[in-house]
Model the fold of this input.
Amino acid sequence: MSAVVSKVTKRRSGILSVLGGSPIMGPLVALVLAMIFFTTQSDKFLTGANFSLIMQQVVVVGTLAIGQTLIILTGGIDLSNGFIMALSSILTTGFAARSGMNPFLAVLVGLLVAIVFGALNGSLVTFVKLPAFIVTLGTSNIAYALVRIYTTSTITKLPAPLLFFGQTFNVAGTEITYGSVLMLVLYAITWFVLRSTPPGRSVYAVGDNPEAARLAGINVNRVLIGVYTLAALAYGIAGLLLAARTGVGDPQAGQTAALDSITAVVLGGTSLLGGRGQILGTLLGALIVGVFRNGLQLMGVSSVYQVLITGILVILAVSVDYLGHRGK
Done:
């Protein structure tokens, strides 16, 4: 009898070690449990059309969260990403729809503006040694002001190339947007770079211990500036996806994007202390938020309670991270 109990105990401990060994297992389990719950609450939840809608709803925040993950992995945080996205989007749509600029050139201009802001953030954090929180808080105000200076009205009648990523194609009777595909491709690329390339491993090393990374021969300043610049490129792409999804250039966009992207990163298991986390976890975190909001909406729950539940989830995720770090 004792031998049987011993075998069962070992088997359970083995399963738990496998579950605990993967950083994304926690978010994955949470996502599956949430989906099971909402499936029992609404017949409309478990449908291809609804899953496509969830993907469309998370595509902008999910893309923003790619850049936010890179920065948090280095031990920083970015409060400016929503307004950088808004500025890039409003310039792209404004130049293309109002000024008659070639749409592809307008997209390039919007992305370059985002990259400049990212390089500015990285330079101030790296060379001036300012806290990332303060730097990005300041640049978020600058980006917001530039949006309002450029226009306070919604930009409409966008040319067709800017709407491409909002268009859909059919897969087994379900309409999938090209923007959703682009977001997944960006996650796949980022996952490969972080997992399998020296620059990706340098990001983790800098976030875990900058001084040890420097002594190991890693150019910490170059890594940080590169991270902030690439993150801003992701924000510019998010601005393009936003315009394609809504069909307009919205000067009011990005108001809560920073908090939404941080929520996705935290729920995905990336540590706010830096050096630990996986980009695929961020994707799961964005999907968790999307599933909760979609499911609660199908249940008829007020949007106020959706925000409340999201806040509770963030606090729980951060508490688990800090308690686990303290234990180690």
Notes: Residues 1-20 have pLDDT under 50 and may be disordered.
